[in-house]
Give the backbone structure.
Amino acid sequence: MGRLGKTIAVIGFGVLVAFGQAEAKNNIVIDGSTTVGPLAKSFAAYFTKKYNVAITVSESGSGNGAKSLINKTCDIASMSRSMKPQELVAAKSKGVNPVNNVAALDGLAIVVHPSNPVRSLTTAQIADIYKGKISNWRQVGGPNAPIVVIQRESNSGTQESFKELVVGKEVPVTKNAETQASNGAVKNRVSLTRGAIGFLGLGFTDASVKKIAVNGVMPNPVTVKNGTYPLSRPLFFVTNGQPTGSVKQFVELPKTAEGKRIITELGFVNKY
């Protein structure tokens, strides 16, 4: 089976497992988002232990996850955004019917260096920072220091979500922005750079960076779930058609007690 991106984990040794009348697979291939990756891998470890089904998890980005599903080289595309119109057209041309299964909810946390005194920004201010219209922290109540803008790569679903929620889908980000390849890389760069600003999934934040409020609302499980945090989004396990068998069992893990426990432990937010 062809693969896109680097294989991060191959978990378990497949044995055919019966799931009622539905067809069971003795292996499941997952490809896509680096944001959803930790959740997919934790679910895979639990699922393999319980059902003895081999699961391969790759993190090549939401865009490549969509391509893998369209090309039928994965069973589940893990995505931190919905499929784009052109991806849906490509899927239809290949006889693929993408179905979104919500894995968890997430907040896009806006993060700065811990020493930065700025505690809150509006979505308009964040947009102007990423457009290059605001370039010094003193313009938003901070110190007299240049802003170092950090973004994600173009194939990132997190980048797509940020642009849709803040900057605008078709609006270019400032050419001075630095590009990082993952949530971890963004966090590391911001943690080491006093003037930096970046965005990452809520589950990836820790004490090395400072989360700031957006429109006066801090990102946390309560504000993400009730929608008051303006940069909230769903994370998806996308399947070709309504899932059956072991794939159905897997994508329904977020509705189970064990799945909810894993979601919470990883810093994501339960939908169900």
Remarks:
- Residues 122 and 249 are 41 Å apart (CA to CA).
- Confidence is low (pLDDT under 50) at residues 1-23.
- The chain has two domains: 7-105+234-265, 107-225.
- The first helix runs from residue 37 to 51.
